[in-house]
Amino acid sequence: MDPPHDDKPSEEVIDFGSESLSEYNLENLPETPGKNDHSKPVYFDNYTTEADEALTHIEKESRSNFASRTLLRFPGTCCVIILALILFSSYLMINSVALTEFSQRQYFVWDDIRVQRNDAIELAKDELAGANFGDDLVPLQVDIQYTWQTFVMYKTNQKGKILTPSNINVIAKVEQEIVSLERYPRICHAVSSTNSACRLHDSLVPFFKEAQTQEQVDATLAALVNSNYNKIKIFFETSFTPENQKSTWARSNFRFATPIFDGKKRYKSSEDDFEDQKQYFVDLLYDIEEITEKSETEEVEIYLFCLPWWNEQFQQLMLGDFKYVVLSIVFVIVYISIHTKSIFYPTVAAVEILASFPLAYSVYRYAMLVKLFNMMSLLSIFVILGIAADDIFVFVDAWNQSAEIPALRNEFSKRFSYVYRRASKAMFVTTLTTFCAFLATSISDIAPISAFGLFSANLVMSNYFLVITYFPICLIFKEKYFPTLMAKLGFNANSPDNKKTQPSQDIEVTPTTTTLTTQPTTNKPALKETTLTNTKTQPHETVINTRTTATIETKSQHNPTDMIGHVETERQLMSDPDSQSETASEKSNEVAKMSRMERFFAGRMTDFLIRTRWFFVVLFVLWVPVGLYLATEIPPLSELERWFPKDHDIEIAIDQHFTGFHQGEEDGKIPVEIVFGVKGVDRSQLATEDRYNPEELGELQWDPEFDLTPEENQQRLDDLCTEMEASALVKDSFVQCWISDMKDWLKGRNEEFPVRQEQFVSKIREFVSTTPKGEDHMVKRRIGLFGNDLRFAILRAISNGDFGAYSETYPLWQNWEKWMKDSNHRSPIGLNKGFQ
Known about the structure:
This protein is an alpha+beta fold and 836 residues long. It has 28 helices and 13 strands.
């Protein structure tokens, strides 16, 4: 019972019951109560600065901002607007999204000099095809696609015994079924422009056609090794030598060419819908795979390899990984359900994650004008799953924790504003860091990686937009309107939060004066129990008796396991009056309500970070330069990256093809083209987003000084071919030089070389139209003859270097650059601006 005042033992008392003082007009309290100020209530005589800051903090955080005020006042309107935005962006995405066809050129660095030169050559060849053929048709299957070479490899489980009669029969059967496929004659390398029959594939079977027994096979092999070892060795592994005529592996090689006739369309040239022609070839590879799989025996395993097949298998591998997307989504939804103890929040989260994609894609495609969208971009779903779940946890935990603050518990608007302000700021920090990380990825020179960074950055911001609009609206409906609706329908829809929430009451307070008496109730010297009772009433004074005991703990006496800072003081000042007189055990029970993780981070972890903050600041400052230095020391790749598991058929075939077999003229080697007449490519007129479009190469620039008609220049180009054959950079003197072939043709006709300047172009035209070699060079566009104008010339060689990691191929490129620079220096004007 409250003690009576000396002047007036009995007086009217306004009893607020169990309501907290802080729930009524705290914003009207003076920051520093004055002793003689009777216009406003006098609060605690000695409440601490920390308590004052905590009260101010709660009041400030619970004030609504524009976003929370709009969502609270117009939740239905905001919901309709957001749904309309999602539906509209979904419509845009459905009508425009398409996975970009995989091509190696996507991974070229747009501004790299080697890429620019390659694009310039491609543009020159395309222009040549258009000038020479126009609407006419390029002969079928004469333009060989070197990257389409297909190797079928055979491995026996009996070491060194691939050449047995039964194994040779298996190889012969596979090869026969391949050449008998319906698609094969439509895409194989034709004999010539006038003979569409397929050239024979490389096979060891014809050499052993008459061998029926193992003795005959061994004898035939010995004779072949003695007579033509260099020709037969390419079919066997590197351990096969004249002294050791045994091999565990063997292989066949099939070559393919364009343009094709697929049974429906006759393509004009190799460039005419090249991707469609390539897809026709990939379909053939699937037919070949079916043959190899059914032809395997207990003794022979069969492997298939070519670059388009590697690309196709990689795409299939990525598509197969997308089955984990479903598992990931299910896991996230289940985990959210367990954490929030609700099925409402994971349902909302699933919709939010899915809706993020059309919003992000609409900005990516129509605002940033980026068309490149491949499998890598779809992998961002794994990123957004984690981010969305984290944001849901932040918002839901903030909402649940706010229920422990009575000043907010009974006022939905204040509680929502308080939670919205806290959660949106916390989520914005994590969103911004992730957004910046992906934005940094977008500066990559490799288009697919850059596009992945751009799309993921948009996806992260789209998710943040939804989690501060769509999710709060769902929360408002769930906590404010749904319980009322269910109650009207006769159901008890109160959630644990709703059960804690009581309707707000408007209480009229009469002018009285407040006095303060304190009575110690515990043995803790740091705690003061403050009881407010009404006293003598004066005009314009307020008498308040709340039977309230406010427990205040000074800052120096915080327990490390308690909530610290504002959260600790808020819980103490804003708790229910009946629980204000806390004993030590009651205080421990309140802390025990928090989860183990909450207690750790709110207490020990936070206290540790505050005490050691300068240590970590200094450590970070020192680590940044060390990290930057270590980043600059990262060496280039020393070996090719592995994109498949080691036991994958493709990976086994790659290893065996590049390192396991004796190499042929072009197997595993890097081809080099020496080009004259082309200056480069101009991309200044292209927009920035065009670098994401593999079809945008820029504008071709010709070399205006190029002139091969002078006799001196003709001779210099022929000498250059001889120098290339003698160079250590060229493998086995393998050079394809059209002017040397033309020289031999002229000498066979007893004509002189070099040709007189005025006759040179006409002789070239006669050479390409009357000889198989000349026609082959022209079809492969090494002679840039536009009517009577020779605009470019190309020499082709096979370098003495293998396909490999950058650390191996870049020095080779540098050596060719030095060779080319020296050659240009020694060449006459008109032939002194060649490049590789």
